Each structure stands twice: as structure tokens, then as C-alpha cells.
Amino acid sequence: MARNVVISGGGTGIGLAAARAFASDGDRVLLLGRRPEVLEKAELPGALTYAADLSDPHAVRGVARFVADELGTVDVLVNSAGGAGNPEPAADTEDRLDAVAHAWTVNFRLNVLTATLLTEALRDRLASPGGRVLFLSSIAAYRGSGSGAYAASKAALHPYAFDLARELGPRGITVNVVAPGYVEDTEIFGEAMDPARRRRLIAETSTGRAGTPGDIAETLHWLASHGAGHITAQVIQVNGGAEHGH
């Protein structure tokens, strides 16, 4: 039976790969993102699209109304929207503290508010039983990200997911987190990566290769399956062994 699947950040990278995986099952997919032109280029036949800034409560209310009108029930919610600040404008300041405040605010807005606002707006529409809520974290949540802001914003999703799993469990809804390592063909790193850094990240893996959006999409797809119905409040690392399980 076809399911209703809502995917934020669905126009590119992991979100789009996940959308294709669900659509291949015949599921009805709604792609959410900030940039309408990107959603239009997604080329996913039959998919619905809705452009909104998911860190804005007013915009998320619009998403909730659209979902109510077009889908009704949400079987799977994939929170894939986020980023490390690209392509956000840099802080227009030379003051170090102002720059720090800007970086941390941007990262928490992109990675935490987008996920929590959308989830809270749609939680009463989640299928009961059988609903699935999925969040995209990062290997950075375990080992840092250089500046700290991106890593901290991804790590903040973990306790939120654990609390949500406890609250929604009685309704037969599972909540899980997927934490990718280095994944190529996404916008997370902005412009082309320095070749030396790319080699270093690949060398950290046991598989000897970079991850792909498809690797992460298949994990999300499995966690949303009937077979994963007794898995909840977990963080699944998908990084080729670059970071061991915890």
C-alpha cells in the first residue's frame, strides 16, 4: 500500500536520493525546500513540491496546511534539510564574538529549527500506528566539525529524537537518527573539496571509499520499513567505519 512521505531538503543530495527510493515503491512523496527552482529541477515524476523556509514558524504553518489538504496523514517524515552555513551569507562583521554568534545561530537555525518545527507541526498527522520519523545527523556530532557550531547543532537532534521516540512510541510510531560520514555529491561542503582533505576522509574509512547519497537513502528507506518496526530511539552511523558505533 502506498504511503505518504514528506522529505525536507528533498531537492538535492541525500533528501532527493531518499525521495527516489520511496517513489520507486510507489509512495507519494512531498519534497520541501527553501529554493523553488531547485525543487522544480528534482525531476521526480508524480512528486509534490512546496517551497518554504522551515526555520520560520509562519512558513511551517503553511506547510502544515498544505499537508493537511494534499496528504492528510503522514506515514514517513524525513528531516533532511540542513547544512553547515552554505550558501548563507557570511557574518558582516570583524568582531569575533559577533561572528561566533552568527555562525552558531545560522547552524542551529538550519539544522535544529528546520527539523523540530516541521516535526512538531506534523506530529499529530503521523500515521498511528506505523508512522516513521527520521532525522539526519552527522559524524561531526561525535567528533566535532572544526568550528563546533555545525557539530553541536547536529548533536542536538539526538536527545530530541530520544524524547520524541518515548512520547510517540505508545502510538506505534518510531523515531530514529541517521548519522552519515563523508558523503560526496551533496552541498554540505560548498564548493569543490580540497583533494588532500578528500583523500584523508576516505582514508579514515574501512571501506576505502566516500559515501554516496544512495547509501544514506537506503538506510532511511529501511528504517521506514515494516521490518524496522521495533527499532526506535537509535542513531545509526553510516560512515564506512570512519567512526565506530557508540
Automatic annotation (TrEMBL):
SMART domains: PKS_KR. Its EC number is 1.-.-.-. PROSITE patterns: ADH_SHORT (PS00061). Residues 3-186 form the Ketoreductase domain. One of its GO terms (molecular function) is oxidoreductase activity. It is an enzyme of class 1 (oxidoreductase). The keyword Oxidoreductase applies. Coiled coil: none annotated. InterPro entries: KR_dom, NAD(P)-bd_dom_sf, Sc_DH/Rdtase_CS, SDR_fam. Keywords: Oxidoreductase. Pfam families: adh_short_C2. Signal peptide: none annotated. SUPFAM superfamilies: NAD(P)-binding Rossmann-fold domains. Belongs to the short-chain dehydrogenases/reductases (SDR) family. This is SDR family oxidoreductase.
